[in-house]
Design brief:
Number of strands: 0
Number of helices: 12
Radius of gyration: 17 Å
Distance between the termini: 25 Å
Helix content: over 70%
Strand content: under 5%
Amino acid sequence: MTTAHAIAIFLAGVAAGTINTVVGSGTLITFPVLLSFGYAPVVANVSNTIGLVPGSVSGAVGYRRELSGQVGRLLRLASASTLGGVAGAVLLLTLPASAFKAIVPVFIVIALAAILLQDRLLAMLGSRHRPGHANPGPVVMLGVLICGVYGGYFGAAQGIMLLALLGLAIAEDLQRINALKVVLAGLVNLVAGVIFVFSAHIAWLPALLIATGSIIGGIAGARWGRRLPPVALRAVIVVVGITAIVRLV
């Protein structure tokens, strides 16, 4: 790995950590970067998953005030995320690599669609939000489980999907919902990453560079990420997402 490649991967980790904390879809930054440097799709995916875990931790710490009073709700949702993350990781490891290469472009298209529709989703959530302490029901738990399976398998825009699901189902302030999203998406990456450590080939240096960058990005996202111009942010993600599709196809 050249110095320029290492710097690019580190900066991608910073960007991904920031984006994951603010909304989600940071994988659409780091995954294409790893692909562009010649890493096989599955290796890039598992290395990216492991690398983004520390950024979720730093992001969750930054949102600790918003998490206050939500421990019971978080524990219920975390059980679904954990099961989903394990199932998604097992699917990634048991299905052939050719299946991943064929399926992921479709997932990226779904992720890009979620990003482009983000304003409408957030407007819909904002119009109905009010303080409350609603607990997630069976349908929401199932939705979180499905998001976990998706996140354990690939994960791009998992955060946006969680934010939309939880925001529409739980009467709560949007920033408190976002805090839940940061923890749940990070938990999915964590359980999937643990499985990958023992069962998959990992490019450890890129994973370490992404991890270091994502910690910085997670802190930045919790403190200042909400000030990022949303149009510019979405434009960058869409461009790198399309690049990843082209690379895979």
